[in-house]
Design a protein that fits this description.
By secondary structure, the chain is an alpha+beta fold. It has one domain (4-78). It has 1 helix and 4 strands; from the N terminus they run αββββ. Strands 1-4-2-3 form a 4-stranded mixed β-sheet, with no helix packed on it.
């Protein structure tokens, strides 16, 4: 895969490793999901989240928090690519 423009992938292992090395090592990592199959993911980013384990499986047990509070925490998200096709 020498020409990344021809590759259908957003990241290689080496590229993802370099990005993750630049982030605080003690942050949890979560992924977006729902339904089946797999997708590329966007550039990892740090967001403030809250844990809501009572949510239905399709809503996910972690949600982005509107504001920081005593029940929130920072996490790195690997958010899947959204396609509308």
């Amino acid at each position: 895969m020498s020409d990344i423009r021809k590759s259908p992938f957003f990241f290689t292992v080496a590229q993802l490793t370099e990005v993750l090395k630049s982030l605080p090592p003690d942050l949890p990592v979560v992924v977006s999901g729902y339904e089946n199959g797999y997708e590329n993911f966007y550039h990892p980013e740090i967001v403030t989240m809250r844990h809501e384990p009572e949510n239905m499986y399709y809503d996910g047990q972690f949600q982005i928090a509107d504001e920081k509070g005593t029940d929130t925490f920072d996490a790195v998200i690997l958010e899947r690519e959204f396609r509308d096709d």
